[in-house]
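Forwarding the complex inputs:
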Amino acid sequence: MSPGRIIGTIRQMPKPISEPPAGEQLASGTSAEEATAALKAAAGTVHDQLKARAETATGDGKAVLEATALMAKDTMLIKGAAKLIARGTSAQRAVWEAGASVAEMLHNLGGYMAERATDVLDVRARIVAELRGVPAPGIPSSSAPFILVAEDLAPADTATLDPEKVLALVTAGGGPQSHTAIIARSLGLPAVVAAAGVDELPDSTEVYVDGAAGLISVNPDGDQRAAAEAWATNASLLAVFDGNGTTADGHLVPLLANVGGGKDAIAAAALNAQGVGLFRTEFCFLERDTEPTVEEQAAAYKGVFDAFPGKKVVLRTLDAGADKPLPFLTDATEPNPALGVRGYRTDFTTPGVLERQLQAIALAEKDSEADVWVMAPMISTADEAAHFASMCAAAGITNPGVMVEVPSAALTAESILREVGFASLGTNDLTQYAMAADRQLGPLANLNTPWQPAVLRLVGLTVEGSRAEGNNKPVGVCGEAAADPALAVVLTGLGVSTLSMTARSLAAVAAVLKTVSLAEAQQLAKLALSARSATEARAWVREKLPVLEELGL
Amino acid sequence: MPERTATIASRSGLHARPAALFAEAAGDVGVDVTIAMQGEPEDDALDASSILSLMTLGAGKGDVVVLRAEGEGAEAALDSLVKLLETDLDAE
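Prediction (whole assembly, two chains):
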């Protein structure tokens, strides 16, 4: 699901630590003093482990580990737990509850402290693991590089994932658009997801991983060893994009980057991205209890604009809700958050936040040289598009657009595009909504792929809608689909004008696109649309693109 | 009881790395040291070696705090800790 061929030994990610049962008492025969001593010993061990890791880390990671190590034997945590033990609670349950109350207190303080609440919960889980004598949760630390095997990875795991140590990711759960796949592509690591049973393999098993083929095999044979060696040679070639996305016959398809902030943008510019096709502005808002000010936002946006002077930067307004809740904007009690008040819809319930964000964007644009485009997520109707365009105009933003991720927007693209200047297809959500399949669910992985002919048809309808509108308004793709080189060819054939992806995928997509003419891409698009299943569509297109196999993509 | 006042010099306040460095140092001096914001009652003083307590104290750059300790070596311990608080630890 993220290309690459590699051979290595595996390390299993330990299962998450389960909560000790509420009301769990001290075992008979264990005194409170003994239990407290055991807790202190476990806390000391966790402290020493984290401290040792801090010594080998650098920068921000080091500071976080040092602080986390100290939390392990912090008097506030340990005394809190000891009080509960004195009343007869088991050591595991006591530290669990003490950790929860400390975390809640930090969370209530907001800002930086609230972010540290997760560190307290991490320390708590480590102490419980130590008391149980099971491996600590989180990514295993190892001096030798390894292939990480897990049930699934959460976005938080990325922070502790060292790309120098991890050769590839393999998960038993998750789909092609799960966090694991997204993390892997952004780090340039080969990955295979939804590999049922892989979590049963013992540590140190040698395996061959082929990310593009979605294959892992135990006891690699000679051919697989040769393939892994060939990949190592090709990988360096596939790491360089010359900054010119084009088909073999010179049809230009600008290749843009998806970024989440200034740091990403600078890295994407260094990889020769031709602009930004999706600037996710959530980073400015997440983990905050209150809305950032217009000036704070403007400064953050400018950081991205400044990385691309004279180039296009497409900014997506705040996409909160569903898997990205925000305390001041979204209702966590919705029974069906993916179908709830999220994205542009938060303007219905909390008017003002979007208006101020647009002011901040206009402010940042004024002092920057980037060509700024602004689009709203989760637009479903032409009326919503018109309202968003009027809000943009009021803020002084001249180029409003919409994300097409709700099937209704694809089906009514013509009337929506009469209201705005461009559309960008968010294939992750478009797939989830077209197939009615949650992106994160492993059992639905086969439904949840943008290779589904129904999804490709919606992409085609959006392009047709733009043609019918008559003003040649651009339709781009900024979902994960654009990062799959074979799918990128199909999307080009469907008439998509730009492709935006994680910057690491630019070189591979460019290399494959360069080998086909526009007419060939159109043929492949037709072929994919005529397939009766996603598997068939993918197999047929890949068969016609032998370059994929040669490059190991 | 011996006490000292100190003005927080670290740019980020007594958070993050400065808090970790200070908590660790306070834990190593061999006497129990408490910390409170200036003007707060002594009863509300917090354990200076607890990073979690320091975080809840929320002392920013320029805030004045009171350190207290008792017993043998208290004076020297307080002096060394005041020096640490009055250094910009973010700059190191």
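The mean pLDDT of chain B is 90.
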